[in-house]
């Protein structure tokens, strides 16, 4: 009996240590709050964020990330501009480095929202995003709080890239670019 209790105790301790390691260094789950990423994500969707890959590569335009902001809790948004990029929006069309950005995920275009900006108008010094700074926007632009409201996001604020939606079960998906 003592041996069996000891084996269970060791198994439980190993499981707890593995969970702590995985959540601290590899993956963590978040719940989407609000409709700012509709139709890609809906309110209460649950996603898995890859924290590990951020140590090996920079985030790219189109990737969906979770980050912390002084403006509130963790946000889920899409990377639109990366360090060195020039980004503008005119008449609801985003331009990155002078080229129009193809954004099939933006479907809420009939509503009004801030549709004209340049980086200096968002508080960026110069015409290009500085090293370590990203411009992020929600897919549902009329209701999204994003870089248009609180400026660029420093790389240190980014938790990681969204890799998987696991809830609701009928909407499980990967690859949100």
Automatic annotation (TrEMBL):
It comes from the Bacteria. It holds the Pfam family Peptidase_S26. Belongs to the peptidase S26 family. GO terms for biological process: signal peptide processing. Essential for cell viability. The chain crosses the membrane at residues 7-30. GO terms for molecular function: serine-type endopeptidase activity; signal peptidase activity. Keywords: Hydrolase, Membrane, Protease, Transmembrane, Transmembrane helix. The keyword Cytoplasm does not apply. This is Signal peptidase I. The active site is at 36, 77. It catalyses: Cleavage of hydrophobic, N-terminal signal or leader sequences from secreted and periplasmic proteins. Residues 6-167 form the Peptidase S26 domain. It comes from Salinicoccus hispanicus.
